[in-house]
Specification:
Layout lengths: L2 H27 L4 H26 L3 E5 L2 E5 L6 H17 L3 H21 L3 H12 L3 H49 L1
Antiparallel strand pairs: 1-2
Helix pairs in contact: 1-2, 1-3, 2-3, 3-4, 4-5, 4-6
């Protein structure tokens, strides 16, 4: 893969796909309710943004160069403040709206990270924010631990309920078995 191809794939993923994929992923794991509806709105908004940004990336070539040791992805059609605002709303907003505390933390960390990147090195925003997000994504491991704990608790509860039901049925069968056996053996004779 050439450097130009790699840069193009990265820019399409980072700038066009993520504003749709992040809220969609959060929407898919959220239970029904008002937050899911709001995240659904962000999915639609992210989809519109993704289409607009993809169109801009296809119609206007992206310039990639190194500035102060960082990669800069420059595309006049996508380098607009309103695009950045909607992008942040759809990505960080959907994370922060999640019911999972670990995903919320990941959203807030990304919001802090992008703010720092905007202050320190706005010219390399795409590359540095993506690097930062990748580094803090370890927080998402906590989400999977949280889900596993919930699943194990539910399993324990089901087993406890099933165990109680089995004990009741066993007691009934044990109590009725001698009568059924006598009845069955007498009718067979």
């Amino acid at each position: 893969m050439t450097q130009k191809t790699a840069a193009t794939v990265f820019v399409f993923y980072a700038q066009a796909a993520l504003p749709l994929l992040v809220p969609l992923a959060i929407w898919l794991i959220e239970p029904r309710g008002p937050k899911r509806v709001l995240i659904g709105v962000l999915v639609v908004l992210g989809g519109v943004l993704a289409g607009y940004v993809a169109w801009g990336l296809v119609t206007v070539p992206t310039q990639v160069y190194v500035h102060d040791g960082s990669l800069v992805y420059d595309n006049p059609s996508t380098n607009q403040p309103w695009i950045a605002g909607v992008y942040i709303l759809t990505t960080c907003g959907s994370l922060i709206l999640s019911r999972s505390v670990s995903i919320q933390i990941f959203g807030w960390l990304n919001l802090v990270g992008l703010t720092v990147v905007l202050i320190v090195a706005q010219y390399a925003f795409t590359a540095l924010w993506c690097l930062y997000a990748a580094l803090v994504s370890g927080v998402l491991y906590l989400h999977f631990v949280e889900r596993r704990i919930d699943a194990l608790r539910a399993l324990r509860e089901r087993e406890t309920t099933l165990s109680r039901e089995a004990e009741v049925e066993l007691a009934q069968l044990t109590r009725h078995f001698p009568r059924l056996r006598r009845l069955f053996l007498h009718t067979v004779d």
